[in-house]
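Late entry, written up from scratch paper. The run itself happened at the end of the previous shift, but nothing got recorded in the book at the time, so transcribing now.
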Amino acid sequence: MTASIENFIKAIYKQSRLSGADTRLSTIAGLLNITNAAATDMARKLAIKKLVHYTKYKPLTLTASGKLLALNVIRKHRLWESFLYKTLNLSLHEIHMEAEHLEHLTSDFLADEINRYLGNPTTDPHGDPIPGLNGKIETDSSQLLLSEANAGFMYEISRLFNSDKDFFDFCTSNHIAIGSNIWVEKQYDSNKMTEIKIDQNKILLNKEFTNVIYVRQVD
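Output as recorded:
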């Protein structure tokens, strides 16, 4: 498969997993920085390959084969992130950008060797689960979005579901990292903002942050 096909399939899968999933053709085109016409052409080609369900004016969905392909690409991406973080100590944004290229150049054999070298990790440095060979992906039922956390409790940050540099720069500056403990001070439901306390510092986060930070309650 070409990188363009893999990126198209991966974009549909990742969008389908978000809260308020939006897999409209125009949305996928925007994410991949291609025209709607190019996205339509790709969707039609992948429908012929039985990787995508395409119906005009309807959201795109993946077939079973398409989903397996997406998870295989994501597996390689997250294994590379884990490898680069461990061996080169690159930042969370840097490992993501490098893995975006390497995922398309990696054979299943090399992915298996990286996995073995790393000791079969279940999550990458962002806390994202690493799919298995068969496409199975383990989910942690104890996790919830920071936006859904109850005020007056301590939580541990378990996942940073974002790839934006500014997001990671902000997290680094404020000591928001995997494994960090935060106190949820208050949820401002009407304004969709969350006040947290970390290292004795209070921070007010908007929904763009709290909807990509996963936490689990500390007993």
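The first helix runs from residue 3 to 16.
(Scratch paper discarded after transcription.)
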